[in-house]
Specification:
The complex is a heterodimer of chains A (about 300) and B (about 300). With about 300 residues, chain A is mainly alpha-helical. Helix content of chain A is about 75%, strand content about 0%. Chain A has one domain: ABC transporter involved in vitamin B12 uptake, BtuC. Chain A contains 15 helices and two strands. By secondary structure, chain B is α/β, with parallel strands linked by helices. Chain B has two domains: about 35-135 and about 275-300, Rossmann fold (3-Layer(aba) Sandwich), CATH 3.40.50; about 140-270, Response regulator (Rossmann fold, 3-Layer(aba) Sandwich). In chain B, helix 7 packs across helix 8 (about 230-240). Chain B has helices at about 1-30, 50-65, 80-95, 110-115, 140-155, 170-185, 205-215, 230-240, 255-265, 275-290; strands at about 40-45, 70-75, 95-100, 120-125, 135-140, 160-165, 190-195, 195-200, 220-225, 245-250, 265-270, 300, 305. The chains are: A mainly alpha (about 300), B alpha/beta (about 300). Chains A and B meet through helix 3, helix 12, helix 14 and helix 15 of A and strand 8, helix 7 and helix 8 of B.
Amino acid sequence: MWRKISGYIIVLAILLESMIFAWLAPQFFSFENLVNVALSIAVIGVLAVGMTFVILTGGIDLSIGSIVALGGVVAALVTKQTEFVWLGFAAAIGVGLLGGAFNGVVIAYCKVPPFIVTLALLTIARGLAFILSEGRSVGNLPENFVWFGKVSVFGIPLSVLLMLASFAAGWFVLQRMTFGRYVYAVGGNREAAFLAGINVKSVTFWVYLFNGFLIGLAAVVLASRLGAGVPNSGLQYELDVIAAVVVGGTSLSGGRGSVISTLFGAIFIGVLNNGLNLASVDPYTQKIVLGVVILLAALADRFRRDGF
Amino acid sequence: MRKLFSLIILSFILGFQIACSENAASNSSNGAGGATAKKKIGVTLLTREDDFYRELEAGLQETAAKNGFELIIQSGDKDFSRQQSQIDNFIVQKVDAIIVCPTDTKGIAPAIERANAANIPVFTADIAAGGGKVVSHIASDNTAGGRLAAEYIAKAIGGAGKVGIIGQPEVQSVVDRETGFKEALANYPQITVIPTLNGGGVRDRALKAADDLLQGNPDLKAIFCINDETALGALSAAETRGKNDLIIVGYDAAPEAVEKIRKGTALKADVAQQPRDIGAKTVEAIAKHLKGEAVAAQVVAPVKIVDANSAK
């Protein structure tokens, strides 16, 4: 019984913090602010879907923020050269896929720990972003580059819909496809998965490639919203994204968790950031609050698993 | 075979260094042999690769020519050890003064101390040094920049309404801008300043901060952004929400921001530093010092407002 209820702890936590913020800041509960919160987690959310897959296999990806920046810079440069916005966006997704493929090959087939590989790519991609952009934001782009920042359907911005679609796709793959079961199996017990005839290397590679695709998508959304390719964007996104995944309740040791809980984790952190800003909490205190809350969430998860 | 190979390489390296030092020697003898025994000033810049420092260098050269100084200008290329050895070379060359735009505030101190020991006066421009004896530090007046932005906004919103700030509390020069801004707005009792949000000085975080700022304060009239990346992030947020009557004021007048100001977006004005002026004031300070006059320990270079009129 306790196990069942505690699965909803994160939902209860979101309700609780919402109530506190509604009391502190009257503007908190409005359709517009809900859209605002959704908008603020759109990029992080897309990335968190991919990160959930990676963490489920027992891996980690630290390179996502840098690749987002690199993808944005490439999108802006290609758009500037060719005058075709769609070509720029496609190039950013290409950058994401390349980054994901690099991680996948080195991790799955060269057997280097994910932490090291993606740490290396973190600095390489950031360096490339600065070299390609000559250290400056690439701006003054054609009008429709900011497409994702402008278009909305029934009052819901396109980038939010894209995030929801990513979560839906992630859920479908994990829960309804054989590949999803393989992902859990690989993360739960690599040896057993191998003995059961699962191609562990191939599953790992595809997870990082899928993650790369989502990184490319996130790069497009961010660059489009910013109206530029910004080499120093995406700083510490890896931390925000890992926090969303872990706060949601996905285990860092792999094999346990889901994209739905990640969605709640992302909402929880998004509401927290938004509420603290609305309530005009000063930026230094915000950092402390965020850290404490993440710690509490991790503790709650630990007790949920092992009892008090 | 391998020995021979390394010998060849070694001789190459030696030859290269000799060539270099000859070059340097001929340079300095040139200076000393000048008819009027020009005063020599060693300059080590942070970099030569951005517009700010190119302008600063131009200011140095103009004013040096006026005063009859000879400048030996080198670039630290944002490399701390390179800059250190440049200062050591200036000491060996017995220059009359050294100008440093430090690549590393703290780390540069020992090199400055060595110049102090050799009795060569040291001046810093744009970026301060964290140690050693510096005669004078010449830099933009960030507090005044904040005040200028405040006056601009106060005028544009008619002296009343809510104003937000997107800052970066980790950086001192930026905090100075914010302080000046708040000081000046304190004179307008009908203007409410909302507590500063942190945009981290980067565009994506500034965008989020601006989103929250606009969300929490639908009646917000203006935002002061402590640099241009922040201002451009805030502009994206305003444009997404169709808030074209918002007034955003940025800082630095980078080309992309000036372009937006010219186009008539919500980004209405920028505070611009005047690097050429910083260069000029630095050489003037040296001229005074070498004549034996007193020089202020801090010299501030003025800043100015760039808006749609002046950006044309």
